[in-house]
Amino acid sequence: MTTPEIITSRLILRPLCSEDAIHIQRKFPRWEIVRYLIASVPWPFPEGAAQHYVDNVALEASRNGKGWFWSLRHKDNDQELIGVISLMDLPDNNRGFWLVPEFQGQGLMTEACEAVNYFWFETLDKEVLRAPKAAVNERSRQLSSRSGMRLVRTEKAQYVSGELDSELWEITREEWRRLARE
Questions:
Q1: CA dist list (Å): 174 to 67, 148, 179, 180, 181
Q2: Residues whose CB falls within 8 Å of the CB of residue 75, separated by 6 or more in sequence, listed in order
Q3: Alpha-carbon gap, residue 24 to 82, rounded angstroms
Q4: pLDDT at residue 1 greater than cutoff 90
Q5: Contact at 8 Å (CB) between 13 and 70?
Q6: Taking 90 as the threshold, does the pLDDT of residue 141 lie above it?
Q7: pLDDT score recorded for residue 164
Q8: What is the largest CA-CA distance in the chain?
Q9: Is the pLDDT of residue 182 over 90?
Q10: Mean pLDDT, range 121-135, rounded to an integer
């Protein structure tokens, strides 16, 4: 299944492409964005790292049917990349995202997550969605809680900012469908 463009009330989720790397390289290397990401994200973020990630990680996973990656763009300025959201067919790691701080706190990531969750459950027909996160990442935890996910496991994990308590959140397709009907 190829990654489709998804339109929400305020966002355009465009399939990630190689040309997006230049925008990611400019927007992404900020401590507020990277500190709670997995430790495999290089920090400081070197020149060319975004191009490597897009071409050799994201697009490779997409070609293999194991990942779906979107650039996030506000409808008011669809030329500006403001974040990335992805779905991955990996054990205990199905959804990840980042959003530039200037656009946080407006419900945009909730809107993006709702759209990709629909794709995950209804188009890809997956049974469960799991999302790991640093326990101190309060905004991400709140988003998961508000969307009906539940905490299923805690452990230690390595993040860009060091070893932190890590949480695994999940929601099943049936739970998601029940909430969507309410």
A1: 22, 11, 9, 10, 11
A2: 10, 11, 12
A3: 9
A4: no
A5: yes
A6: yes
A7: 98
A8: 47
A9: no
A10: 98
Backbone angles phi, psi at 5, to 5 degrees: -75, 140
pLDDT value for 58: 98
Tokens 């009906």: give the residue: 148
Compute the distance between CA of residue 154 and CA of residue 170 in angstroms, rounded to an integer. 12
Q: Which residue has the tokens 């946080």?
A: 104
Q: From residue 158, give the alpha-carbon distance in Å to each of 59, 76, 164.
A: 25, 37, 6
Alpha helices in 28-156 (DSSP H): 31-34, 49-53, 59-63, 108-118, 138-146
CA atoms of 4 and 128, how far apart (whole Å): 21
| Tokens 């949480």, residue located | 167
Q: Which two tokens stand for residue 162?
A: 């060091």
